[in-house]
């Protein structure tokens, strides 16, 4: 029989529900929410990758929500536009050109893996830019 510690089970349930919790109206206890909205999804910032020049050892913050006006880098827009999403901090291992994901659907963040070429991205509308 599989035995799971209560803490591990709670963490697994939170991860499966996007980490959201709500108060139980009967007792005020913190319980995983079954009725909360799904976690926010990133918007497609661009239908192609962003060519950038990266420097070895320098820290960068890649926008994972798609709302930044400084694509492909974070400007803090996720705090208001997508509070459940966080940017990705990374430090490249070498200096040189790189293609950073613009569609926010890559399986190798922050780098482009070609996902933008699919119909799900190419057929989707782009959000209006301010």
Which features characterize this protein?
6 strands, alpha+beta, two-stranded antiparallel sheet
Rough outline: globular
In the predicted model, the low-confidence regions spanning at least 5 consecutive residues are 19-25
Question: End-to-end distance, in Å?
Answer: 56 Å
Number of helices: 3
Average of per-residue pLDDT values = 83
Indicate the structural class: alpha+beta
Approximately what portion of the residues adopt beta-strand conformation? Answer: 15-25%
Q: If strands are numbered along the chain, what order do they take across the biggest sheet?
A: 1-2
Estimated helix fraction: 10-25%
Q: Give the tally of β-strands.
A: 6
Q: What's the gyration radius in Å? A: 18 Å
Largest sheet: 2 strands, antiparallel
**What's the helix-strand series?**
HEEEEHEEH
């Amino acid at each position: 029989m599989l035995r799971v510690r209560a803490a591990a089970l709670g963490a697994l349930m939170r991860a499966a529900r996007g980490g959201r919790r709500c108060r139980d109206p009967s007792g005020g206890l913190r319980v995983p929410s079954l009725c909360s909205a799904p976690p926010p999804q990133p918007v497609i910032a661009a239908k192609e990758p962003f060519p950038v020049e990266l420097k070895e050892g320098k820290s960068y913050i890649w926008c994972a929500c798609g709302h930044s006006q400084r694509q492909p880098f974070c400007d803090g827009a996720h705090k208001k536009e997508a509070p459940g999403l966080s940017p990705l901090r990374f430090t490249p291992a070498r200096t040189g050109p790189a293609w950073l994901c613009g569609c926010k659907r890559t399986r190798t963040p922050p780098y482009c893996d070609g996902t933008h070429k699919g119909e799900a991205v190419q057929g989707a509308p782009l959000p209006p830019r301010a």
